[in-house]
Amino acid sequence: MFVNPRLPERPSAVEVVTMTEQDSNDSRYDVVVVGGGAAGLSAALVLGRARHRTLVVDAGEPRNAPSAHMQGYLSRDGMPPAEFLALGREEIARYGVELVRDRVTDVARGEDFTVALERGGRVRARRLVVATGLKDEMPDVPGVAERFGRDVLHCPFCHGWEVRDEPFGVLASSAAGVHQALMVSRWSKDVTFFLHRVAEEELSDLDLRRLAAAGVDVVPGEVAALVVEDDRLTGVRMADGAVHSQSVVFVAPRPVPQTGLLERLGAEMDETPFGTYPVVDPNGLTSVPGVWAAGNAIGFSEQVVHAASGGYRAAAAIVGDLRMADLDAALGA
Q1: Is 266 left (phi over 0), alpha (psi -120 to 50) or beta?
Q2: Burial level of 198, CB count in 10 A (0-12/13-18/19+)?
Q3: How far does CA 5 lie from the centroid of its chain?
Q4: Is 178 left (phi over 0), alpha (psi -120 to 50) or beta?
Q5: Rounded distance between C-alpha atoms, residue 69 and residue 1, angstroms
Q6: H helix intervals, 29-95
Q7: Which residues pair with 101 in a beta bridge?
Q8: 223-228 long-range contacts, Cβ below 8 Å, gap at least 24?
Q9: How confident is the model at residue 63 (pLDDT cuts 50, 70, 90)?
Q10: pLDDT digits (tens, 9 = 90+) for 272-329
Q11: How many CB atoms lie within 10 A of CB 112?
C-alpha cells in the first residue's frame, strides 16, 4: 500500500505552512506527531478530537510512494493513497490540528521535548508520537528500483489480486525468499523462483519439496536485469543471456527503519531480521517516558490499516496520560 511522495502545494481544506523561527519558539504543543502518514494522521485525529493542541511535522516522504492504489483497508479498498492522505489532512484540520511541511532533525528531552526543525526554529511538546516509517532498499538489479510499485512488487496482500494469474517471477535475496515464492503461488499457478545469488544448496529439502508441491519452477544462476518493452515488464534476463518471460516480479527489499530520533532519545531497541525497531508496549509507548511510536517505525509488516490503528491506540493512551498528569498537577498545586 503506497502513498504519493509529495504533499500538494495547497491541500484541500488544509493549509500546509512553513514554521518560522519566531512562530516555533513561541509554540508549545501538547503533542508533536513526527510523520504525516496513516499512523501520524490517525494519532492526530484522535488527539484533535480530544481537544489537545497538536502539531504534525511531515516531510512528505512515505515508504509507499510508488503505488497508485491501496488494498485491504475496509471501506477504502482500491482508493488512491494520495486521496486517502488528503482526506486525512482535511479531517485533522477540522479539529484545529496544525500541519507543517518540514523535517524533524533532532529532539532534546527536558521538562518538555524540544523539537528542532530542518527549516529553522524549534517547538516544544509535552508528548511525542514518532511515526517516521521506513525506507526500502531495492535489490541491486537493473530495472528493479525503476519498476517498483508498478510491476515489481513485494506484498501479495497489497497487489496479488490485481496481478492474479499472470506469470510471476520471484527474485531471491536470500534463502528466505522461498517463503515469498510459496506465498505468491496462492495468486498464480505460473511462478518462477530465481535464485539469483543464492546457491541451490542453501535450500533445505523441505523447501524444495514445498516448491515442487506448489508448482514453482526454480531457476539457478544470477539475474542480470529486468526486460522492459514499451514501459511494460516482459521478462527477466539471466547473466548467461537467457530470458524468462515474466509480467510481474516480486522482490524482498531491505527495510531501513527511520528510527534515528528514537535512538537519540535513548529508546530501547530490538534487533530483528527485518531491521532494528523500538521496544513498545501494546499502545506504542517506548521505553522513553512520554514518547510513543506507531506504523512502520515499530515494524516491517505494518500495513496502512495497522498503522492507522496503531496511531489511534497511541493517541488514546496519550490522552489518558496527559489527563492524569494534569489532574495530579492540580492536586499538587
Answers
A1: left
A2: buried
A3: 12
A4: alpha
A5: 7
A6: 38-49, 81-93
A7: 58
A8: 223/141, 223/171, 223/194, 223/196, 224/141, 224/142, 225/141, 225/142, 225/143, 226/141, 226/142, 226/143, 226/144, 226/147, 226/152, 227/143, 228/143, 228/146, 228/147
A9: confident
A10: 999 999 999 999 999 999 999 999 999 998 999 999 999 999 999 999 999 999 999 9
A11: 17
Look at the block and give the residue holding cell 501494546.
Answer: 282
Q: What residues are paired with 248 via a beta bridge?
A: 168
Q: How big is the CA angle at 208 (ends 210 and 161), to the nearest 5 degrees?
A: 45
> Which value, in Å, is the radius of gyration of the alpha carbons in the chain?
22
Q: How would residue 3 be classed by pLDDT, with cut points 50, 70 and 90?
A: very low
Q: Quick one: which H or E segment has residue 37?
A: none
Write the CB contacts of 168 (distance below 8 Å, at least 6 apart in sequence).
184, 185, 187, 188, 190, 191, 192, 246, 248, 249, 250
Which residue is it, cell 524549534?
Answer: 122
pLDDT tens, residue by residue, 191-208 = 999 999 999 999 999 999
Give the span between the Cα atoms of 287 and 184, in whole angstroms. 37
Tell me the pLDDT tens digit for each residue of 7-24: 333 333 344 554 544 454
CB 174, CB 289: distance < 8 Å: no
Q: What is the reported pLDDT for 21?
A: 47
Strand locations in 102-231, DSSP E? 104-109, 113-117, 122-130, 134-137, 152-153, 168-171, 191-194, 217-219, 223-228
pLDDT for residue 142: 97
* Confidence category of residue 1, pLDDT binned at 50, 70, 90: very low
Look at phi and psi of residue 97 and say left if phi exceeds 0, alpha if psi is from -120 to 50, else beta: beta
Entry field: residues in the chain:
333
The one-letter amino acid code at 263 reads E
